[in-house]
Backbone:
């Protein structure tokens, strides 16, 4: 169901918001797929993706070479010789293997800028929003 089809008290309760804050939340979500009321407290952290395959994750090598793709909320990352597409927003993420290295997108202007962050010693990648809420 779309949030506009759900009675406001039920929608607010499902999102963990006060009913009075529901309109502001839906308005912000229209322009920033990574916005939520607790973003400032989370210091820009949105979600973690991947993980070591031996522990139930997706990857057999640490991710590297993260880049933004043209579509909002889409990133690419390499693990060893394999490329992956990450699609993310405040609600979650999806990981799909790519057939080849993708072309990075040109920087986009306006709104919060999200990035995919990797560290050589970790099998996780993190979606992070540099701008505080």
Residues:
């Amino acid at each position: 169901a779309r949030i506009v089809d759900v009675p406001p008290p039920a929608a607010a309760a499902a999102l963990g918001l006060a009913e009075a804050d529901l309109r502001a939340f839906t308005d912000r979500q229209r322009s920033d797929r990574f916005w939520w009321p607790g973003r400032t407290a989370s210091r820009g952290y949105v979600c973690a993706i991947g993980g070591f395959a031996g522990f139930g994750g997706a990857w057999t090598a640490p991710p590297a070479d993260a880049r933004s793709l043209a579509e909002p909320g889409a990133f690419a990352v390499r693990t060893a010789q394999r490329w992956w597409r990450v699609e993310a927003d405040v609600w979650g993420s999806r990981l799909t293997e790519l057939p080849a290295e993708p072309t990075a997108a040109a920087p986009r202007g306006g709104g919060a800028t999200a990035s995919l962050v990797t560290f050589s010693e970790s099998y996780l990648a993190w979606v992070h929003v540099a701008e505080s809420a």
User: Anything to note?
Assistant: The mean pLDDT is 88.
